[in-house]
Specification:
It is built from 17 helices and no strands.
């Protein structure tokens, strides 16, 4: 594996700001981001990436590669939580296993954004339709996690909400981050189809400010991730190992699926990152409401305290190396 891409990734401004945030916590600095701002920047990043993805999908059209890729993304978001659930049941009850598995079957939009920045720094092309895969991979994992609880948990659960199919679909599809991403994707597609001049008016907001907003958000994520690390001691070595090994296992599955789909290197990396990332926003919000028996310290501390930093700092260049080895670039 080449060292240069890893160094380039670590020295990228977003990653450096993430590291600055973690260091601030370790050295007990009083650096903090006021509470409303991280949420605002999170919503902004989802809006911008969804809007730009919709534009790119309209430009590329629904080619023979688009629909199979989107279908494969949905299938992976259904399979991964099932595999994770079976592994986690060796150590945890149904509720914790389902919640953690759903988090690892879902995705991290910020990890995806970081992978795009990495590809830009390496001058590797990728297609905008991969944002469609991002938008479609969050809800299925939530649905699988809630269904696992519905059918595998004891029937006489105390303090449990009755989970009808309509409620499960509502929690997964109308979750705030999922809803905003899908809506922005549709708006970008419609604007590119009917009002191209609207794209230029939106560019200062969705394009020019994007990189700076990403750096600011990752600064806050560095602080939050470092604050979550002490909770990992309570999780135990099994869950700590799962938080690192599960993304690597998922990346291996993802790269072979990408090879089967004949995706290019850039699209392959994005697909692999989607498979290897874990949700720390949408899934925790859904699980806190519907599965109160699951310990949030488990599925938040692992995804945000370990998996997210691993993917941001080391995972992305490692996955790129894996893509290059398994999917060699075909000569022109």
């Amino acid at each position: 594996m080449e060292v240069n891409p890893i160094l380039q990734n670590v020295l990228a401004p977003p990653v450096l700001f993430f590291l600055i945030g973690t260091i601030a916590v370790f050295f007990k600095s009083d650096l903090e981001i006021p509470a409303p701002l991280p949420k605002l920047f999170s919503l902004y990043l989802l809006l911008a990436i969804g809007f730009r993805g919709g534009i790119e999908i309209q430009k590329s059209g629904f080619t023979d590669q688009v629909l199979p890729t989107l279908g494969a993304a949905i299938i992976m978001s259904l399979i991964i939580p099932l595999i994770g659930f079976l592994i986690l049941r060796y150590k945890f009850n149904v509720f914790n296993s389902a919640a953690i598995a759903a988090a690892y079957g879902s995705i991290s939009a910020v990890t995806f954004i970081s992978a795009e920045s990495f590809l830009d720094s390496q001058n590797i092309d990728f297609d905008g339709f991969m944002v469609g895969a991002l938008a479609l991979m969050e809800s299925p994992a939530i649905i699988v996690g809630l269904l696992l609880v519905k059918f595998a948990a004891p029937k006489n659960r105390p303090n449990a909400r009755k989970m009808h199919l309509s409620a499960i679909l509502h929690e997964s599809i109308l979750n705030g981050s999922v809803y905003l991403l899908l809506s922005s994707l549709i708006i970008g597609f419609l604007i590119a189809s009917t009002n191209p001049s609207g794209i230029e008016k939106m560019e200062p907001f969705t394009k020019d400010l994007f990189y700076g907003a990403e750096c600011f958000f990752l600064l806050d994520m560095g602080i939050v991730a470092a604050q979550r690390l002490p909770s990992l001691k309570k999780a135990g070595s099994f869950l700590i190992g799962f938080a690192i090994l599960m993304p690597i296992f998922n990346s291996l599955m993802g790269v072979f699926v990408a090879k089967f789909l004949s995706l290019g290197p850039g699209n392959s990396l994005l697909f692999v990152v989607l498979c290897a990332s874990a949700s720390y926003l949408a899934v925790p919000a859904a699980m806190r409401m519907t599965v109160p028996e699951a310990k949030s310290s488990y599925y938040i501390s692992t995804t945000l305290g370990l998996t997210f930093p691993f993917n941001i700092v080391l995972g992305i260049p490692i996955y790129m190396s894996l893509v290059n080895k398994i999917i060699p670039l075909t000569p022109l």
